[in-house]
Amino acid sequence: MKRFYPDHLEVVPNEPSWEDFCVLDVDGKRGQGVLVLRDFSQGSVLFRMNGTLKTEMTLHTLQMGPGLHLDDPYFAGKVLHSCEPNSWLDTDSRLFIATRDITAGELLTMDYDETEDVLFRSFPCCCGSARCRGTIGGRLVRQPAHRGRRKTQVLTTPAEIPAQLYATAMAEKQHYTAEFATASAS
Length: 186
Prior knowledge:
The chain has a three-stranded antiparallel beta sheet, with no helix packed on it. Strands 4-6-5 form a three-stranded antiparallel beta sheet, with no helix packed on it. The protein has a two-stranded antiparallel ribbon with strand order 1-2. The protein is built from two helices and twelve strands. The protein has about 190 residues and is of the alpha+beta class. The two termini are about 15 Å apart. A hairpin with a 4-residue loop joins strand 8 (about 85-90) and strand 9. Helices cover about 15% and strands about 25% of the residues. It has one domain: Beta-clip-like. The protein is globular. This is Post-SET domain-containing protein. InterPro entries: Flavunoidine_N-MTase, Post-SET_dom, SET_dom_sf.
């Protein structure tokens, strides 16, 4: 079965699957993102991230604790930021959890300020939510008015994704499902 992760990384329970997600180019501002291919209810486990533990941060690492970062440029590192995310990361278990109901066709998002003390690189936010903080730099550099927000807050604004991107992702899902069925039959 095709994985998002390379073969040198051990398979972990709840690894993201091609049946549930697709990594695709979103636009020039945001680069690649993770498209959700089926519905998930609030509180559902979405996936468990995998990668290599490092002491230094990079563009695709997520902070697991002070001075400890998990490098995942293959999948979790492609989850886009939103100030009103539809998921959050439990750093103890490395599980991404749905903070609200997520519908197929949405981009998977998380709030980078919830896991990172300081980001590898601060950036102007383009999430478009009504609660957008403008600049994202990590929880230690977050504006005082935004500190202390709970990461399990239930959110209602759905992410929008053009229908053409969704159709492309669904075609890729069918291709990989057929490829897996052919490989399993041999």
